[in-house]
Automatic annotation (TrEMBL):
Classification via PANTHER family: ACETYLTRANSFERASE-RELATED, N-ACETYLTRANSFERASE DOMAIN-CONTAINING PROTEIN
Name this protein carries in UniProt: GNAT family N-acetyltransferase
Protein origin, superkingdom: Bacteria
SUPFAM superfamilies: Acyl-CoA N-acyltransferases (Nat)
Pfam families in alphabetical order: Acetyltransf_3
Domain (N-acetyltransferase) ranges: 2-153
InterPro entries: Acyl_CoA_acyltransferase (IPR016181), GNAT_dom (IPR000182)
Alphabetized GO MF terms: acyltransferase activity, transferring groups other than amino-acyl groups
Length: 155
């Protein structure tokens, strides 16, 4: 069963271990330039947790910490972002977590960015009613290259 709860300090160790997976970093594309730098990771997460405009939750599957999901406001609409431990990809956890999170974070429109080749993430967002509103290109540190991103929105 997938559930969400407030982030606890001990969750950060799990999030950090998830970030070390090279394949997950490739799919996320916009992660840390050096995912093994714990100092940068801790600083980044402290900024997230200290921002009153950011809603962040730990994703649990049968009580196990498997990822995080958040909405931050970096412009004219909040944006949703999530990370799931690769060992749990394909289990429906992300789909369930996004649905629960959208029940909690009700401001609309809400947006998401996904690298164009991250088909699974795009499908999850589309399942919850997100539609493509544009495309952009950006440098992805985890890939060391410019990638195409799809911008999706839920109204």
């Amino acid at each position: 069963m997938t559930t969400l709860r407030a982030v606890e300090a001990t969750d950060l160790d799990e999030f950090f271990s998830h970030q070390l997976d090279p394949r997950a970093n490739h799919m996320a594309a916009f992660g840390a330039k050096n995912p093994s730098d714990r100092g940068v990771f801790d600083h980044h997460w402290q900024d997230i947790l200290d921002d009153p405009k950011t809603t962040v939750r730990t994703i649990l599957s049968d009580g196990e910490v498997v990822g995080s999901i958040l909405a931050y406001n970096d412009g004219d609409a909040p944006e949703i972002s999530y990370w799931i431990d690769r060992s749990h990809w394909g289990e429906g956890i992300t789909t369930a977590a996004v649905g629960q999170f959208l029940d909690e974070v009700t401001e609309r429109p809400i947006r998401a960015h996904a690298v164009a080749d991250n088909v699974s993430s795009i499908r999850i967002l589309e399942r919850w009613g997100f539609t493509e509103i544009g495309r952009t290109q950006g440098f992805a540190p985890a890939r060391g290259a410019v990638v195409e991103e799809i911008i999706l929105e839920l109204r």
